[in-house]
Amino acid sequence: MSNNFPDDINTYKDFCNVIKDKTAKDMQYMYDTLYFTNHIGSKDIGASYFNSDGLHKLAWIKKIIDTVTFNKEDVVLDIGCGRGELVFQLAHIFKLRAIGIDYSRECVNFLNDIKRKHPIEVQENIGFYCVNAEKIELEDNCIDKIFIVETIEHISNKEFINILKECKRLLKPNGLLYIASKSNKWFDSSGFYILKLLYYLFKRERLLHPKVGQFKYLKQDKDYDESKIFLHINEQSVLSLKYILMKAGFKSTISMDNTNNLFNCATLKKNKFLAFLYDLFRLKYLFGDGFTVFAYKK
Predict the structure, then answer these.
(1) Is 144's pLDDT higher than 90?
(2) I need a labelling partner for 179 at 20 to 30 A (CA). Which of 62, 165, 191, 253 fits?
(3) What is the dihedral of CA 212, 9, 236, 186, to 10 degrees?
(4) Structural domain harbouring 118
(5) Bridge pairing between strands 126-130 and 97-102
(6) pTM of this prediction?
(7) Quick check: is 268 in a domain?
(8) Contact, 159 vs 91, CB < 8 A?
(9) SS3 of the chain
(10) CATH of the domain at 110
(11) How far is CA 124 from the centre of its chain?
């Protein structure tokens, strides 16, 4: 385990106490080789990455390719690019110019090593740079599409707003800002406790908070560092995300990837009615997970 973190957590409150007032800058030292090999997704996904030099199939990349229109003239920017899969695959598939930035020097160094394993014509369209996304040294209105995938939960609100302002400056007039995050603050802080009560009342089961369960799972496997869960310093709700985007000068459409409406698959009229109520009262924002954002400059 990394220093300065507890040996165990038993409640979501314990988790929140650890990440309170943290910024991405505070946590920068934790983005080490172990994080990039084993903690982005899982160690199995990491193994697939290195076996394919970043060209392995991933559902989230397929979703981007299926929902976003690309052309060869595009210049795209991936902020918090991690292992760089999106950069590699967009450059391969669409022959476009793809730039990945990350504030971890260790990350960028190994990305440039992986880059050298790709064909020269692909290498020429790819750039990886160690950059603080709050100040990106690129010209105004030079980027067609910006992607921020599984990154916003790693930064404070102040850092997020500064990054969004940079995105607004960099994007061309009709440029797209695409944001994706699997986290939902409302579920962790409220929805889970409603679900926990219902499980206890009707099934006599005691649910463990996902954050606590993840910590304990990682702690049992020597290939992981359980303290990496504290890198999620600032998860968003649909409302907080919408507000921050508006404050930074973006109009946005936010969809929930998984509504978690268990009644949708039911055939009984009673359950169909419950599914209707679930949708009517927008309970997906309380119990669902996974945000996808399409945002444009106002």
Answers:
(1) yes
(2) 191
(3) 60
(4) 31-182
(5) parallel
(6) 0.95
(7) no
(8) no
(9) CCCCCCCCCCCHHHHHHHHCCCCHHHHHHHCCHHHHHHHCCCHHHHHHHHHHCCCCCCHHHHHHHHHCCCCCCCEEEEECCCCCHHHHHHHHHHCCEEEEEECCHHHHHHHHHHHCCCCHHHHCCEEEEECCCCCCCCCCCCEEEEEEECCHHHCCHHHHHHHHHHHHHHEEEEEEEEEEECCCHHHHHHHHHHHHHHHHHHHCCCCCCHHHHHHHHHHCCCCCCHHHHHHCCCCCCHHHHHHHHHHCCEEEEEEEEECCCHHHHCCCHHHHHHHHHHHHCCCHHHHCEEEEEEEEEC
(10) 3.40.50.150
(11) 27
Q: Establish if 22 belongs to a structural domain.
A: no
- Quote the tokens at residue 28: 């920068």
Cα 221 to chain centroid distance, Å, stands at 23
How many domains is the chain built from? 1
Residue 233 lies in a domain: no
The pair of structure tokens assigned to 254 is 């936010």
pLDDT above 80: residue 36: yes
pLDDT digits (tens, 9 = 90+) for 86-114: 999 999 999 999 999 999 999 999 999 99
Residues 66-76, mean pLDDT to the nearest whole number? 97
pLDDT in tens, 225-267: 999 999 999 999 999 999 999 999 999 999 999 999 877 765 6
Opening angle at CA 48, ends 47 and 51, nearest 5: 85
